[in-house]
Every structure is written in structure tokens, then in C-alpha cells.
Design brief:
CATH superfamily: Ribonuclease Z/Hydroxyacylglutathione hydrolase-like
Number of domains: 1
CATH architecture: 4-Layer Sandwich
Radius of gyration: 16 Å
Helix content: 10-25%
Shape: globular
Number of strands: 14
Length: 210
């Protein structure tokens, strides 16, 4: 599996394209819609599904653009944040602090995550772990065979996600990381929602929050 990162402009959020011989999994289609579409066209493979680590506006801004361009692949989201896709106040784009933004309103997702199974979508096998704290429905995707995890805004390189936003909670996030991420092998690569890749072992040793 190849992992391609696209850095988006509006909040320097990361979009990930996971590519195998058959298809693409798209994770968190952020604000840089043109670059995302250009890379998808270059790869010339179908998008099997779109996975959302959480539904803050910066991680979903190109969702419907990608859907329409790619033949409406199914979108997966936490049930706790499914309505945020079309509720600007909840996805934060509708707050007064973001008066410079157009309200982000997307179509509903087709699927909500299940947490007690291994997904197999177009030969991508992964597990969805609940990692709330940055937002109430935050999740991470564990790809055991590829020895990596995509953590959204839960865990960053030597940092953690903000907990001062609506539904955020510092203690919940710390507990999520300890129980759901730090229990993974230390050599697993971490691909966060912002910033550079790291590893579980590096974060257990050097992250100042632990």
C-alpha cells in the first residue's frame, strides 16, 4: 500500500490517499480540492471509499466535490458526528470566529463506523478505533498489515489535538491515546491530521503530554 499525503491550505490539514493495486481509499478530503482531484486523476484508479477521522470543516471541505468527481463512493463517519457534515455550527465553519468562511454543508454520509470488526474494502484491511477528545466522534484507522495508524487530530508529532473546541475534552483525549494508540507496537508509523509523520514509540518517549 502506498500512502500519498496532500497538504491543504486553509488549516494545513492533511488529506491521505491510500493506494493499492485495485483502488484508492481517501481520508479527510480537506480544502485543496483541485490538487486532490488532480492526484486522483493521475492515479487512474477508482475511489473505493472516503473515510473521515472527524468532521471539523477543514477535514471535509472537498467531500462533495470528490464524491461527484469519483462516482459517489460511500462515505464513512462516526455516528456521533454524522450530522455535523451538514450543520455548520457543529463542524465549526458556522461559528462567528469563521465569518471569513462560507458555511460548510455536505451531503449525509452513507455509512457509520463499526468498532468491533476488521474492514476489508477493495483489499484494504483496517480497524477503526474510537479516539475522542479533540471532538466527540474522533476515530483512528489502524492498518495492521502495513504497520501504521492514521490518527486524525488525536495525536500529532510531539503534540496532541486541541481540546478547547466544542465537545473537546483533555482527559478524554489523553485516555484515548493511551488506551487506543499507545497500545500499538512502537514501530507503527503515525500519520496525523496535521504535521509530519511520526511513530508510536517516538510519541511514547518524546511527546510532552505523556
Amino acid at each position: 500500500m502506498e500512502i500519498i499525503k496532500i497538504l491543504n491550505q486553509i488549516a494545513r490539514e492533511n488529506t491521505y490517499l491510500l493506494v493499492n493495486e485495485k483502488a484508492i481509499l481517501l481520508i479527510d478530503p480537506g480544502s485543496n480540492g483541485r490538487e486532490i482531484l488532480a492526484k486522483l486523476d493521475e492515479l487512474e484508479k477508482p475511489v473505493a471509499a472516503i473515510l473521515l477521522t472527524h468532521t471539523h470543516y477543514d477535514h471535509i471541505m472537498s467531500l462533495d466535490l470528490v464524491r461527484q468527481h469519483c462516482g459517489h463512493p460511500p462515505v464513512y463517519v462516526s455516528d456521533k458526528e454524522a450530522s455535523w457534515l451538514y450543520t455548520p455550527v457543529d463542524n465549526l465553519s458556522g461559528l462567528p470566529r469563521h465569518d471569513d468562511l462560507v458555511d460548510v454543508i455536505m451531503e449525509p454520509a452513507e455509512q457509520t463506523f463499526q468498532y468491533n470488526e476488521i474492514y476489508d474494502i477493495a483489499d484494504f484491511q483496517f480497524e477503526v478505533r474510537q479516539t475522542p477528545g479533540h471532538s466527540c466522534g474522533g476515530v483512528s484507522f489502524v492498518f495492521a498489515k502495513e504497520e501504521c495508524v492514521i490518527t486524525g487530530d488525536a495525536l500529532f508529532k510531539e503534540a496532541i489535538g486541541r481540546t478547547d473546541l466544542p465537545t473537546g475534552n483533555f482527559d478524554t483525549l489523553i485516555s484515548s491515546i493511551r488506551q487506543e494508540l499507545f497500545t500499538l507496537p512502537g514501530h507503527f508509523i503515525v500519520y496525523p491530521g496535521h504535521g509530519m509523520a511520526t511513530s508510536i514509540g517516538h510519541e511514547k518517549t518524546f511527546n510532552p503530554f505523556f
